[in-house]
Amino acid sequence: xxxxxxxxxxxxxxxxxxxxxxxxxxxxxxxxxxxxxxxxxxxxxxxxxxxxxxxxxxxxxxxxxxxxxxxxxxxxxxxxxxxxxxxxxxxxxxxxxxxxxxxxxxxxxxxxxxxxxxxxxxxxxxxx
Length: 128
Prior knowledge:
Blueprint: H1 3-6, H2 12-41, H3 49-66, H4 74-95, H5 101-109, H6 116-127
Helix pairs in contact: 2-3
């Protein structure tokens, strides 16, 4: 029951702060969970490479919206995003149709670290 928790609050803002503390974090976690589930299960299927990449990018932007990490040093943030973009590249490559196995293998076995945009560009060129 919520009523006793907000009964003695003096302003509407105070009430909203309590409600946000109680329910806001849960909603955020559920949203991020669902978005990440969608990201990891998304497959190219009948979509073009451009449409598949756009769908992934849209989901990633939503996930990023909910990210409010506080970094103690810039190096930690840099390391985190380097790893995150590498993971996103793997998700993109893994969701592509089997038609792209050749270029996917070339990218993964090259030994180079490509940006997600470079990978997308190479895959899209292969599609055409």
